[in-house]
Amino acid sequence: MSLGNDDEYVTDYLKRKHAENPNFFYAIECTADQSNPNIFWVDTTFRTNYSYFGDTVRLDTSYKLHHCMPPLVSITGLSHHGQPLLFGCGLLNYDSDSSYIWLLQNWLHAMSGNHPVSMTTEPDHRIRMAVAKVLPQTRHRFCRWSILRETHEKLAHPTFHEELKKCVHETETVNEFESCWHDLVDRYKIGDNEWLKSIYSARHQWVPVYMKDTFFGELHPTEETSNRNMFFDGYVNATSSMQSLVKQYESALTSWHELELRADFETTNTTPVLKTPSPMEKQAASLYTRLAFLKFQDELVETLANPATKVEDIGTVTTYRVAKFGDREKAYIVRFNSSEMKAVCSCHMFEFSGIICRHALSVFRAKNVLTLPSQYVLKRWSRDANVPNINSEHDSLTKRYDTLRKEAMKFVEEGSKSIHIYNVARDALKVAANKVAVSKKRVNHSLMLNQETQEGEKEKRIRELTTELENTNERCEMYRSNLLAVLREMEEQKLKLSVKVQNARLTLKE
User: Fold this and answer.
1) pLDDT of 89-114, one tens digit each?
2) CA dihedral for 65, 71, 72, 76, sign (positive or negative)
3) DSSP 372-421
4) CA distance 439 to 446
């Protein structure tokens, strides 16, 4: 199949990126019944970021709401600063079950088969089927914002929408939600509405009370991101051609990277204001990013108004009832295991967001736990969440890549300030590029020589190890014979002692 000019422009761009870096992944799907191909790609930085923050992801297909928009889809996640990260990007020219399966399969392949814990998508039956097929281990959630928006459009009652949002966001148990829902539809006499029936039957995939035990990384659950494409919003619009889309795509990457660097700088160079004398708060301030710490701090301060009352003790597990002053009707149950320093709360905030709740912290106060147990500091919310492991070759490569990229960004930032500095920076980069090319040739030549030398050394080493193995086998056989002799002697001594003990017992009886 021949590609159109726009699609050819994009594929040429992807081929250039792959030629520059073989780790750049892209895939193109062309079939006889499609006038335009499906295109998908994953940059090396996407893979790196996914290795740190790939626990929860979002598949953005919001272009379908705006028919004039380019069919741009993206798979995104959240950094430790709560900012969007791109994990994959594509142009889905054909909206079908097979297209979504193809997209997710290629994305999963690019990510070395590592499934995310959870994924949020539009409430689309094609996407639902594709996620179930390709990511069966991943908890699939529908975008709550999209469902509520469509409900508001279909049932434009002045007060129903606000009551529905309260029912969805403010109920904290399954029974409470079920009761609230049925009361709501009964009062408005809309129990026969087909749309309400459909979203109720799918409630396990979008209502928060059914998903509290799964990590979605939302520090403020009632503020779930809308169905707009949060990564490319403001960059790509209905007037974007494929040529301009590529430029806007790169502009978005640069802008979000700069915001991430700024958030890193603020976390590293600003000291949070502590609100309590608690050693735990000071500990958290040194471990968490600014965003995560502020959420933790809110929870810690709230422990003062949420005392824990002991209910029962069973072995190492103590059960507490935690309720806010003046609201004893609404209580939470926390089970604390003293041997594991583990507190499990019925609100499941830690499981859902990764930040420990006020109820568990209140129990820690009651048990005089002064510092936060390590299992309650998720690395994904810590300052060093994206710091490579120096023992990993992949992470060492990643660290070098990130360091060079940050240094290059300094040239870009300074070079854009004036034409003179731009020319100086460009000349310096050309000189550096030539030096890198010369160094690369030398390294490749050295590697060839080293490989030949290493092959000879390997053969010599194999012979030495073979001889050593034979000698070791001989020694082992000798030790084995000696050990068997000792064991036989011990058995004989055991038998003699047994006879003596038996004789002594008979003597005592007489």
Assistant:
1) 998 888 889 999 999 999 999 999 99
2) positive
3) --GGGS-GGGBTTTTPPPTT-HHHHHHHHHHHHHHHHHHHHHHHTS-HHH
4) 10
CA–CA distance, 101 with 132 (Å, rounded to integer): 10
> Are 351 and 376 spatial neighbours (Cβ–Cβ below 8 Å)?
no
Write the CB contacts of 52 (distance below 8 Å, at least 6 apart in sequence). 80, 380, 385, 386
Q: What is the pLDDT of residues 151-188, one digit of tens each?
A: 999 987 879 999 999 999 999 999 999 999 999 999 99
3-class SS of residue 323: strand
Element (H, E) at 480: helix 419-509
- The span from the CA of 453 to the CA of 209, in Å, is 64
Residues paired with residue 88 on neighbouring β-strands, in sequence order: 75
Q: Under DSSP, is residue 335 helix (H, G, I), strand (E, B) or coil? A: strand
Q: What angle do CA 254, 260, 262 make, to 5 degrees?
A: 105
Cα 359 to Cα 379: distance, rounded to the nearest angstrom: 22
Task: Kindly list the strands in the beta sheet with 327-337, ordered across the sheet, starting from the edge strand earlier in the chain.
Answer: 308-314, 317-324, 327-337, 342-345
Amino acid symbol at 363? V
AA identity, residue 413:
E
Q: DSSP string spanning 312-339?
A: EEETTEEEEEEEETTEEEEEEEEEEETT
Q: What's the CA gap between 238 and 291, in Å, rounded?
A: 34
Residue 329, CA distances (Å) to 43, 223, 326 in order:
52, 26, 9
User: Cβ–Cβ contacts within 10 Å for residue 321, how many?
Assistant: 17
Which two tokens mark 239?
């007037």
Provide the β-strand partners of residue 85.
77
Give the confidence band of 227 by pLDDT, cuts at 50, 70, 90: very low
List the structure tokens of 225: 């991101």
Can you spell out the DSSP letters for 265-313? HHHHH-PPPP-S--HHHHHHHHHB-HHHHHHHHHHHHHGGGS-EEEEEE
Tell me how many degrees the CA angle 60-65-71 measures, rounded to the nearest 5.
60
